[in-house]
Amino acid sequence: MDKHRSVLRSGFEEYQRARQDPALEERIRSDQSKGVPPPPVQLPHDPAATVLDLPRPDGTLLVKSDIDACLHERRSRRRFSKKPLALAELAYLLWATQGIDELIDDYASLRPAPSGGARHPLETYLIVNRVEGLEPAVYRYLPKTHQLLFVFDEENMAARTTQAACGQDFVGAAPVVFVWSCVPYRCEWRYPLEATKLILLDAGHVCQNLYLACEALGLGTCAIGAYMQSAMDELLRLDGEEEFVVYLAPVGRG
Q: What's the predicted TM-score (pTM) here?
């Protein structure tokens, strides 16, 4: 019986062959090495769109500042109360997962979560149901300015979110759902073959930061990989090719 060969493993082997074949290596040479300008670290938006300022990250909000305790007590939490999140708490979570501490010429950025080559190919969308100071709607985080971009509002978002999350009711009912999309070219610009692996690793880095930040704030979250790709992309109005959902996590109080 032939041993199963995964797509990821096949990609590793293709990469190794390319490194041994000068002709193939030339065909997969990165756009960076060709002198192509890098894609921006943040997706553009309509200048006339509604943009909301967020409170600066405030460490005094933490109810648990001991990293050892956060690591030991971190759990996936699926039961959330009806109590809303404070806007300052949401702002801290956004900074902890995708905030920018240093921007390098709109080419790369240094953030609390690591990323291969500092490419940071993820975008953060929020499906907001109950956050103080925010109307229920879909927003996108703007890490360069630490702001929220209003994307759209729509009726029955909770029900649609639950349906896209394979019927998991606690996802759609959460005060807020973090949804991470990826912009593949942001990583492929430098790493044509390695991008698939690096994007998956980055998603793990970001979500673990969310877990630890939630634990420190006295909140709960649960990483969600079980969702219907086309339904979740359609829910956020993504094209599914140049940008698509890779991970999500509801957040709330226990």
A: 0.91
